Amino acid sequence: xxxxxxxxxxxxxxxxxxxxxxxxxxxxxxxxxxANVQVFQPVVKLVDVIDSAPELLPRELREIDLCLIQLSGxxxxxxxxxxxxxxxxxxxxxxxxxxxxxxxxxQRIETAELTEASLEHFxxxxxxxxxxxxxxxxxxxxxxxxxxxxxxxxNLKVPLRFDFDFPRHSIWGRVSVxxxxxxxxxxxxxxxxxxxxxxxxxxxAARRNISRDELVTPVMFEMQSTFTSEKIESPAIEQVIxxxxxxxxxxxxxxxxxxxxxxxxxxxxxxxxxxxxxRLVAKTRGLKFVVPRTQAMQSGRVGQLIRVKNLESNxxxxxxxxxxxxxxxDLK
Length: 332
What we know:
five-stranded antiparallel beta sheet
């Protein structure tokens, strides 16, 4: 009698365990989809886009791969229907309810370190975003070391991201910027940092020392790229040829239109005379070439138009004098 009663009790307990397991398996798992996510790693997993504590998700759901983002700064949109389909293929018939945003925008960002170099790099990317400049056309320099004491309090092995508050009135020049470093959503460092912010521009610079009242020729100047925090309106080299310098210009100096003045006709020297051999440069559709054996049909000063004859074809063209013995013709 006791053996039969014990067997009945075992059967009741086993049935209860089976019912509990079935109930747990049929209990739906509710997941809330986030609208915006930033990740450091290239592989985006389900745990990255769900607004739930990772430890609350079953392990097999936590490790489901959703997509691959290869480049830093690249973004991808994950539709809720796509995620549902991915879960249906990997969840072992588990009942899953997906709520929250209809779409999750996932962006891969670079991993930062608490160093001045990393701070300058991410500040440069932020300035480029705010100003529509290309990243390589922006330069940011930290004026003083900022991580002498703060580094000891932060684990540098964890992935970090920077956040910046640049002044609204002017972003260029010497500015004071509120900078912060986060690990996920936790603030790990914050400080106001002095920075020098500049942008790349094309400027006209002197190749050699130029005296006052010297007549400008093409070999005196060249266009260069430089970083500056000021807005420089530098002229093109074609705009100053034939003018005179109004001051001494040291070699390497960047010039402006105010550094030159028109030459009065009475003071201008004739640089090409009639019957002189001329180096004629022809320009057409972005190309230029030298026309051989040409001769001036009339005299001229820099900037004037003269007639030049091709001695091989006997064709006569109108060219602009640019220097002694040199003229340019634009062919259409």
